[in-house]
Amino acid sequence: MPKGYQYKTKIEKRMSRIQSWLIGTLALIALALIGWNLSNLNENASSPIVDDGHPTYQTQEATSFVYDPEGKLAYKLVADDVQNYTETKLTWFTKPILTTFAPDSTSETPTWTVRANKAKLTNDKMLYLYGDVQLDSLTDASQLQRITTENATVNLVSQDILSDDQVTLIGIGLKSVGMKMRGNLRNKTAELIEKVTTHYEIPNEQPNP
């Protein structure tokens, strides 16, 4: 056999071994990359949903009706804008107007209207009111007619109300101001706490002719 042919055969064998080594190395790299990608997919699949600060849903000029377990209307909530956040279980309202109804009434008699610039409703039925809070009684027989403050919290289940800001109460023939308040809308009661001042209005009596 010619020497040149033997030399060529040795080169081909060496090239074949190099190609086999390269193919094996590339195969190992490919397997490593596939495993890395699969692990990333598993990590992403098990990662919790990140709250990016955007509402889950949003609507404008919304009206909500809430009924008690007996099917009676408990309250109505109207707002210019509603934003719900599923992750934090919060709902925000712009320019909310809450109307409460008497629980023992068969004709859905409204008892109070509650207004504010903003409101936040939590999952445990607590309504936090922010900015220019005003509550007006819709019952003529109630001695307490109006409550104004900057911020307040209303428990929509018990209708307890509290405020740690300055509060003004207006009733029949009186006006009281205090630094805090605790009360209940259903019972039509409110108690001012700390630095309370009260002004009474005496109606002018008409002279007898």
TrEMBL record:
The keyword Transmembrane applies. The chain crosses the membrane at residues 21-39. InterPro entries: LipoPS_assembly_LptC-rel, LPS_export_LptC, LptC. It is found in: Cell inner membrane. Keywords: Cell inner membrane, Cell membrane, Membrane, Transmembrane, Transmembrane helix. GO terms for biological process: Gram-negative-bacterium-type cell outer membrane assembly. It comes from the Bacteria. One of its GO terms (molecular function) is lipopolysaccharide transmembrane transporter activity. It is a single-pass membrane protein. GO terms for cellular component: outer membrane-bounded periplasmic space; plasma membrane. Component of the lipopolysaccharide transport and assembly complex. Interacts with LptA and the LptBFG transporter complex. Belongs to the LptC family. NCBIfam families: LptC_YrbK, PRK10893.1. Involved in the assembly of lipopolysaccharide (LPS). Required for the translocation of LPS from the inner membrane to the outer membrane. Facilitates the transfer of LPS from the inner membrane to the periplasmic protein LptA. Could be a docking site for LptA. Required for the translocation of lipopolysaccharide (LPS) from the inner membrane to the outer membrane. This is Lipopolysaccharide export system protein LptC. It comes from Xenorhabdus bovienii str. puntauvense.
